[in-house]
Design a protein that fits this description.
233 residues; alpha/beta; Spore Coat Polysaccharide Biosynthesis Protein SpsA, Chain A; 7-stranded mixed beta sheet
Length: 233
């Protein structure tokens, strides 16, 4: 079984499309866990409608909520997704087959924007060009899509909740020291461009680059160096 864990905070607009894409998969051996940060909108009602497992927490952070979801997971494999992503048809069957065939312990994904604008397609190509060679040296992967064996998640003690930004990168780096990582090639995840649209594509890219440089020079970001919004907060 795969346990799909989705941290949420006021995601009534985006969560339904993700849940529809999950429930339309041809691979059915999964459970969906919504790890909610005390949403004030209809997020929990939507989760109940789609018969998801729900765990709530007053502590709001992707790292904490992913860990909380993993604690109640029944699956041998965990799939962490962001609430504003979408899975294409046959995603689960394709990626589980590749994950097993390559004997992986943890995997990341390539992403496609949910917009036809060329600027976002360009950014996605840049990300792919970085991730492809990096997976053999120092892997890069976004928390919007990480697949990992449950026993490995427990072994590395989950996500570091003291990290404000880049907890996903830290998680993958720690896992890769004792396990096999690769980027899945058989299917991609659609991601939302909402933050690019809200703050501006170029400005958002610059913020990301700044965070990457900060991590490379000073290490994990454990203080508020930029204003990063979790969910629709």
């Amino acid at each position: 079984m795969i346990s799909i864990i989705i941290p949420c905070l006021n995601e009534e607009k985006y969560l339904p499309r993700l849940l529809r894409s999950i429930q339309s998969q041809d691979f059915l051996n999964f459970e969906i866990i919504i790890s909610d940060g005390n949403s004030k909108d209809a997020t929990l009602e939507i989760a109940k409608k789609y018969k998801c497992k729900i765990i709530t927490s007053k502590k709001r952070s992707p790292a904490h909520q992913r860990n909380s979801g993993a604690k109640i997971a029944k699956g041998r494999i965990l799939l962490f997704l962001d609430a504003d992503t979408i899975l294409p048809k046959k995603f689960l069957s394709c990626v589980t087959k590749e994950f097993s065939k390559k004997n992986l312990d943890i995997a990341g994904f390539y992403f496609k924007p949910d917009s036809c604008k060329l600027i976002y397609k360009f950014y996605s190509h840049i990300y792919k060009d970085i991730c492809r060679p990096a997976q053999y040296i120092k892997p890069v992967s976004m928390g919007a899509g990480i697949m990992i064996k449950t026993k490995l998640h427990k072994k590395i003690k989950g996500f570091d909740t003291s990290i404000i930004i880049g907890e996903d990168h830290d998680y993958v780096q720690r896992a890769c020291k004792i396990s096999k990582f690769r980027i899945i090639k058989s299917s991609k995840i659609f991601y939302s461009v909402r933050r690019f649209e809200k703050h501006g594509a170029f400005k958002t890219l610059i913020r990301w680059i700044y965070c990457i440089i900060y991590v490379l020079i000073k290490g994990p970001i454990k203080k508020q160096v930029i204003n990063y919004e979790f969910g629709n907060n």
